Amino acid sequence: MVPLIDLSRKLEANADAFALATRQVLDSGSVLLGSQTSQFEKSFANFAGTKYGIAVSSGASALQLGLAALGIGPGDEVIVPAMTAVPTASAVCAVGARPVIVDIDDETAAIDLELVEQAMTERTQAVIAVHLYGRPVDNLGKLTDLGVKVVEDCAQSHGATKGLAGSIGAYSFYPTKNLGGIGDGGMVVTDDPEVAERLGRLRVHGQSEQYVHIEVSQNHRMSEIEAAWLNIVLPQLELGNQRRRDIANRYQLANPNIRWQARHVNHVYHLAVALTPDRDEFRQAMLKHEIATGIHYPLALTQQPALQQFVSAACPVAEKWANECVSLPCFPELTDDEVDDVCAALVDIDL
Ligand SMILES: Cc1ncc(COP(=O)(O)O)c(C=O)c1O
To answer: What is the assigned CATH class of domain 236-348?
Structure first.
């Protein structure tokens, strides 16, 4: 069976380096916010093309603290795309603001910029643009021109964008991401020194100096062990992204009749996503060839039970996307033979 993802391959390849790094962390006596974390913050901000990087405990925390650091809170509205992981919207709720769910573009699955403009009210403080599946959102500058803050949800797009079009970028290091951690982790990147300083406080209970808390927050720290792992795998990210691109290109060439998420030169293919109205048949056919597939995501935000209270407009494009999308195996450690097997199965598919 060709797996949708197999983390054990990457974990195994880095096991010895990680054992050594873990030993160094233990010897240092510093297990939180020590030298591993500060080194990773510098290296990752440099990779992302930003001045500052503030490591936090998850991608969800990165979004939540990013919004809070921009001053977004109760009474505010934040526009989010209807096709994304639920944490994009729940982060808005976590700061007490209201997510306004807007439909997506049918080719790219990115938020529809015209609909964003229509959804704006005097309460709109920000828009979250999600680089879904690793494809950079086109024309992000248009969003910044609308006069609202732009938050880039980069949870799936490490390396797809350099620098920020928006005010902040929020990354996740969930283990399956392009830069995957050994547990949970995240980072907020920004070029604004005041926002960076505030983020540094917000991740440690709003503390400005020991035992002095100048705003209310919670614990969103990353562990030194997590940072040590991320320092090991960060130098492998560019090559891994290139491998993902090569794999996705081969799939797209294998069967030109299949519809794919629109291409982009900087796509980093966190997921290689095809679209078909006959999804069950497609998945069955792949299974017969012993190829695993997945669905990201089977429900648009407008279809999520927990988010019904925030649904104000229909999002038919996102709901159709949720019905038709299917993810194929696409991770750097796939062998050439496995990629050949997926291509052969795609060639064989007749929908
Ligand atoms: C688009 C998107 N945003 C936010 C998140 C939240 O990241 P985490 O799982 O690290 O909290 C994820 C990952 O699940 C995601 O894919």
So the answer is: alpha beta
